[in-house]
Design goal:
The chain is an alpha+beta fold. The chain is 18% helix and 34% strand.
């Protein structure tokens, strides 16, 4: 049994429930967001690994909302792996990282503009990150604009 007395006598369950936040999907659009967590995880089947990224939205009207992203970095499907690595490459470019980061901690704190879409899952709207862009509002001084898309990015990931 765990003690809940630390909540105190002034805890009101109804008020707390009302302030619990909105979990509806965000409307499709572009949102500035900061990486608050990044880690490699095994996929469900155990046959590959994805980069899990948790984003905190900074844009007005959605401040504090959380988004989740998974990029296939290692996958038995060559196509899935190629797509995941291309997405990771675009994320790095948008975040001003021109070299492969040495670990996932290098992504934490980076701010980019996300193009967010909506899809249906079990009858509910869910968000998905569709694209990454440099955030003009949060770009670090001296950061170059994103490189144009080319076959060089595809070849860089092998």
């Amino acid at each position: 049994m765990d003690d809940l007395s630390f909540l105190g006598d002034d805890f009101n369950p109804e008020e707390a429930a009302e302030q619990g936040g909105n979990f509806d999907a965000l409307k499709p659009g572009k949102y500035d967001a900061e990486v608050v967590k990044a880690e490699m995880q095994d996929n469900k089947s155990g046959s590959g690994r994805h980069l899990y990224i948790q984003w905190k939205v900074l844009s007005e009207g959605a401040v504090g909302r959380m988004l989740h992203d998974r990029l296939n970095i290692v996958n038995k499907s060559d196509a899935a792996q190629r797509i995941g690595r291309a997405q990771f490459g675009r994320l790095c470019i948008a975040a001003g990282m021109r070299r492969t980061p040495s670990d996932t901690d290098a992504l934490v704190g980076k701010v980019v503009r996300l193009k967010v879409g909506v899809y249906q899952y079990n009858g509910e709207d869910r968000n998905e990150v569709k694209e990454y862009e440099t955030s003009a509002e949060y770009a670090e001084p001296g950061t170059a604009p994103p490189a144009p898309k080319s076959d060089k990015l595809k070849n860089a990931w092998g």
